[in-house]
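User: Teach me something about this protein's shape.
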Amino acid sequence: MADDFDPGTLRQWWPKPSNPRPIVIFGAGSIVGDAHLPAYRKAGFPVAGIYDPDHAKAFQLAESWGIRAYRTEDEALAVPGAIFDLATPPAAHATILGRLPVGAAALIQKPMGSDLTAATEILEICRARKLKAAVNFQLRFAPMMLALKDAIARGYLGEVVDFDAWLALATPWGLWPFLKGLPRIEIAMHSIHYLDLVRGLLGNPLGVHAKTIGHPNHEVAQTRTAAILDYGDRVRCVLSVNHDHDFGRKFQACEFRISGTSGAAYVKLGVNLDYPRGEPDELWIRPAGAADWVAVPLEGAWFPDAFANRMANLQRFAAGEDEALIGSAEDAWQTMALVEAAYQSSAAPATAIAPLPGR
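Assistant: First, the predicted structure itself:
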């Protein structure tokens, strides 16, 4: 197996649509300027324009990118054949989706609503309006993750039996002012990416044990999470997430370790280290039978290239060029169910430890 391992042949890109449709973006927050617009320009996807209720913010962003800013939501909705990109807060998703043309294609910013009840409402709207809707869990589409999944599919790791996520970093939560006061943040807004990725690699777990808490140095609802996903007796899956390791870069980390019965992989998620500038992503694989680790030369990064790959799949599905819509609203609801279970686990009492017997 090691003799035929060529890291340069691992898949890193999603095929482009033959005739990309115009993209209409709802929302003009930082994620649009940092990821959506750079990704679409790099991929050659046409952006018809942006709408945001904060007109000044929308016009400023549109001007900097040389695109149109719509004055009304109706103008944005009227673009024929558009792919609608909802880069909006969770509370806004349902209202916008309810106004999209029947049968339209839409990309919904994660999370899919603020909780599972909201996610179910969104799912029902998508079904009722026959929307070709996907949720923007774009980590699955990062070049390093496409390559990792390809390596697993080719058998270079054997059977995957361990997944470890370890994050110890300082996240600038102030970049997202809409998070202020929300009761659910860390799992719902951040670790949800990792939970979705794990589902994409290992399938749905049987259940989850989790604890998510805040930090005394600030008022963000939760910034630290520990979780164990139950995959039975063959697979161990653990996430350790700490967004408050704010003591300099030296011992910070944002990495996954994926171990199989005959090989292993290491992933560094560089964007989260010094976000949004970030550091380069890394993927290393020790394939079955190899004597050492092999670096996979990455051709792109999670930010912004995963956004282009994510959009490519939606565009191709809408055009009938892809049979499957990865991360569809139906599939994303299951990630939301896992998130809900994690919060319920966190709120439940832990198993009590027996007291010392009396003398």
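Now, about its shape. The chain has a mean pLDDT of 96. DSSP finds nine helices and 14 strands in the chain. If you'd like, I can walk through any region in more detail.
User: That's plenty for now, thanks!
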